[in-house]
Design goal:
This protein is α+β, with helices and mostly antiparallel strands and 534 residues long. The strands form seven sheets. A four-stranded antiparallel sheet has the order 1-2-3-4, with no helix packed on it. A hairpin with a 5-residue loop joins β19 and β20. The longest helix has 26 residues. The chain is globular, with a radius of gyration of 26 Å. The termini are far apart.
């Protein structure tokens, strides 16, 4: 054995030899030179700045979700959950003694929360949905599923458990299964539920190979329609609050489509960009916006805001997924739309007729008033704009997106603005252009919260996306880290927290509980605010 090989085999990695080996570039020494997470925590805990208190590594955020009115965002971490305000990122509630979670869903601002564990412990199985009373730290009940739960949606009447090949509808009051729907294989777990309990519209992917969406009535437990929104498979979908409009995006990520659930036709189309991207979230804005707004975030590190305005029209596939769709999209879209809307239930029609009627009447009045002022030379341009996808009225570019695996976006009126500023515009051309403000909040997978103020300017006709309307100016108002290395994870003021060593009250005899007991507990939790002082 040569001298060099003997030295390589008998190298000592003591502190003195380690420093010498690092000086000469020994690969094993370089690998040993990187401190682990535990070593970093040990160094911090014994440093003069942190002496006397224990500092743990920052929690890992595994999922996030906005509540039904997009006023709060809930984070699921490897320790528990935290609830932050969507207006400023301030932490208002949380628990880090529950255990690792993979999903968390709020019910508006009530004390009721649904969580799904990550499987680190037997009590936090990924096949089980725990219904919690966050204010009193009680487990109200559990829902056991056959396979891993990929998504959970809920309103005041229903809980939806999305698995890989099925959707199960549960009654929120009793946590009893009402219907199990066998679906196509969906690894993404795409599902949407309207926030309005009186409609309870459910939407999920209907095909693995193309962008078909199945719409279901979760109250009457019947299938409503199936529509073909895209040629490529679905990447994201969302419903507005009352379940009258469905927004979808394909895996190409170039065009966003809106489908009217009254007619089954694709009535609006929006252009996100010319290059392909992964659409990470779709979210309708608050109901106070007029026109209604839609927010879209993608893996490009951008969030686009679109205005749903003008006369509803059928925008058959143009410039979206494939060239075949350009030629065949009109015939296939018309066929699916015609055959899909013949089985709309009477309950859905009754709950939506008033809302949809007002939208159509206002759009017709707007177009009729504007048409009298359109010059003959602009008729062709107006017709071309009516067929092309509408452009975004505002675009937000995130400053840091290198480590973002997913992102969520939401729209709210800017704090301090009154609802009358979002009233329908006047048709008088002499009136000045409207300038309105909205708040766009974005949460990324690295637990960073971004708050943008977007100023929107309409044209003389009141439209934000047509004519001489200017694209909205987005200004970054706030950027903060939602989790950090501290005693209680998350920054900002904490309201309503319980001690970290507190125990959750489990229902030991869950099988013996009467349905009336569960309904009473759930109703009590729904009626109480999570943030009320107790």
């Amino acid at each position: 054995m040569t001298t060099s090989s003997f030295i390589m085999c008998t190298v000592d990695l003591s502190p003195f030899a380690l420093s010498r080996a690092r000086r000469f570039g020994h690969p094993r020494a370089r690998a040993r030179a990187r401190p682990t997470v535990a070593q970093n925590a040990h160094i911090r805990n014994h440093s003069p700045a942190h002496r006397g208190r224990l500092v743990m590594p920052a929690p890992v955020v595994r999922a996030a979700s906005y509540n039904q009115d997009c006023t709060y965002v809930a984070l699921a971490t490897d320790r528990g959950y935290a609830v932050h305000s969507a207006s400023d990122g301030q932490r208002y509630h949380g628990d880090d003694a529950l255990g690792g979670l993979r999903l968390v869903e709020m019910l508006f601002t009530s004390s009721l929360v649904c969580v799904v564990g990550d499987g680190d412990s037997p009590s936090m199985s990924p096949r089980r949905i725990k219904v919690l009373d966050a204010r009193h730290r009680r487990v109200l009940g559990e829902i056991s599923c056959a396979s891993t739960v990929l998504a959970v949606r809920l309103n005041r009447a229903r809980v939806i458990a999305r698995e890989r090949t099925r959707c199960t509808i549960y009654e929120l009051g009793t946590l009893c299964a009402q219907q199990t729907i066998e679906t196509c294989v969906d690894e993404r777990g795409l599902v949407a539920l309207s926030a309005d309990a009186e409609s309870s519209v459910l939407a999920y992917a209907g095909s693995e190979r193309e962008g078909r969406v199945v719409v279901h009535d979760a109250l009457n437990l019947c299938r409503v329609m199936e529509t073909r929104a895209h040629e490529s498979p679905l990447a994201a979908l969302a419903l507005n609050a009352d379940g009258t409009m469905l927004a979808t995006a394909s895996t190409r990520g170039t065009v966003i489509r809106l489908t009217s659930l009254q007619s089954g036709c694709k009535v609006w189309s929006f252009r996100r960009g010319a290059t392909s991207s992964v659409i990470q979230s779709l979210n309708f804005g608050a109901t106070t916006f007029h026109p209604p707004l839609l927010c879209v975030s993608s893996d490009k590190g951008t969030a686009h805001v679109f205005a749903i305005e003008g006369e509803p029209k059928e925008c058959v596939a143009r410039g979206d997924d494939t060239r075949n769709e350009r030629g065949n999209g009109a015939r296939e879209g018309e066929t699916s739309a015609t055959s899909a809307t013949t089985t709309v239930s009477s309950a859905l029609a009754k709950s939506r007729a008033g809302v949809f009627g007002r939208v159509v009447n206002f759009a017709g009045a707007t177009v009729s008033g504007i048409s009298s002022r359109v010059k003959p030379g602009k008729v062709i341009a107006a017709a071309r704009n009516a067929m092309e996808p509408a452009r975004a009225i505002a675009t937000v570019k995130l400053p840091h997106t290198s480590s973002t695996a997913w992102s969520l976006c939401a729209l709210q009126p800017t704090p301090g603005t009154t609802a009358d500023k979002w009233a329908p515009p006047s048709l008088d051309a002499s009136q000045p252009s409207r300038q309105l403000e909205a708040q766009v909040s974005v949460v990324t997978s690295d637990a960073v919260f971004y708050d943008y103020n977007v100023r929107l300017t309409a044209d003389r006709s009141g439209f934000f996306s047509r004519g001489d309307a200017k694209e909205g100016v987005a200004r970054l108002e706030r950027e903060c880290k939602l989790v950090d290395e501290s005693d209680a994870f998350g920054t900002g003021s904490v309201v309503g927290d319980l001690p970290n060593d507190g125990r959750w009250i489990q229902n030991t005899s869950e099988t013996e509980r009467d349905a009336r007991d569960v309904r009473t507990d759930v109703s009590e939790s729904m009626s109480q605010s999570m943030f009320a002082a107790g």
